[in-house]
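User: My advisor, Dr. K., asked me to get a structural model of this assembly before our group meeting. I'm new to this, so sorry if the format is off. These are the inputs:
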Amino acid sequence: MDKIKIKGGKRLNGEIYISGAKNAALPLICASLLTDETVTLTNMPILSDVKSMNALMEQLGTKIDSFDDFIDGHESKTYSYRTPKLESLTAPYDYVRKMRASYYVLGPLLARAGKVELSLPGGCAIGARPMDIHLSSLEEMGAKIEIKNGYVDAEVDGRLKGAHIVFRNVSVGATCNILMAAVLADGITVLENAAKEPEIGDLICLLNKMGAKIKGLGTSILTIEGVDKLHGAVHKVIPDRIEAGSYAVAAAITGGKIELINAQPSTLKTPMQILRKMGVDVSPTERGILVDATHKKLVGEDIITEPFPGFPTDLQAQYMALLTVAEGAGMVTETIFENRFMHVPELMRMGANINVHGHASAIVRGTKKLSGAQVMATDLRASFALVLAGLAAEGETVVNRVYHLDRGYEKIEQKLRGVGADIERIKETGED
Ligand code: EPZ
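Assistant: The format is fine. Below is the predicted structure of the whole assembly, which you can bring to the meeting.
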């Protein structure tokens, strides 16, 4: 029940080291289930979601070793995963309820053991988030699937079979799951309309290092030639583009200047382009990306979320916070999730002028100053948006339910304090 207290109004200045990507790390961990040899992942972020995934892996029979590491002079973790024998083929409700990315064990377990029971994740704070694409694709590969007592019961006689699958919708999760299922399948699988997010590129890199034969990296058509066996590998997790984009907004919203060390410009083209249009100087450096908002006035700009390389839904809330203090207006259109404006009422409590139209669009009219308040959000990115608003606001902001932030932002207070923010964590017990 920790809270974060921020005294706003400080111009942030300095550098922030960008950690390994949460949304790359989670499927990479599950890919280790595809072999009985050791898969070592370096540059792993220290996050509660990684801990939750590790707990599920141990339950399935994975032996995990962890080491403190230094990558480019910064603290990180290296984990090694070895699953000599699967001790369970079930991902129970308590794990999936805590973290829906637990569903990444579906493809690997079915490919390796021919059977899996996965508690079906329900809807969540940002939308209904069904799994129909994952399941129908596995059926096309020969799996028999039943939903029983809230569980997906999937089974295949022998090996999965290669298939030509056309996703009806671009889905990051389904692309990862079907890739992991197809690498050990019998024959060739072609995935059309696959997601192209950099985290998928990272998964393909690891799988190919493990002996998989996947072609089409970076495109929406992936061809996977199934192999009989995969082996161990060592892999460095890519930097977190969403963390980098979030701290870029921290620089912009405070009129500050931050170098995002390790951020990869190629993974952030659209969000950085929007920042430039809003009047922020953004330039690649030898070490990452420099975001400089010290000279110009911020102006409003329209944003529409789309699959990569479009503007990421995982930065929508943070950019909306930025628009609340820009001159003029910006229209925010959310096309990926049907309920991802939960931050709007909280931003309005801080003085933001936002008009929501239906579920998908909102007009944000800039206001001169936000004012600090007690706020809370029901998901990770919305919580970060409230931290950003707090950094820009007059007075004190207290962000409740900090556990959301701990799922996806490593050392958030330390990183922000390092660039001059007045921010502290309040440890509390009892109701939040
Ligand atoms: C991943 O979720 C990310 N999670 C999300 O990050 C991210 O917002 C999302 O991709 C979009 O980029 C992880 O990587 C762990 P999708 P995922 O399948 O895979 C619909 C964060 O804050 N759909 O690409 O669950 C779905 O409802 C999180 O870090 C179906 O209809 O997203 C959505 O509208 C939140 N049927 C759209 O597709 C399916 O079977 C895209 O979802 C699957 C998805």
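One thing worth pointing out at the meeting: The chain has a mean pLDDT of 95.

User: Perfect, thanks a lot.
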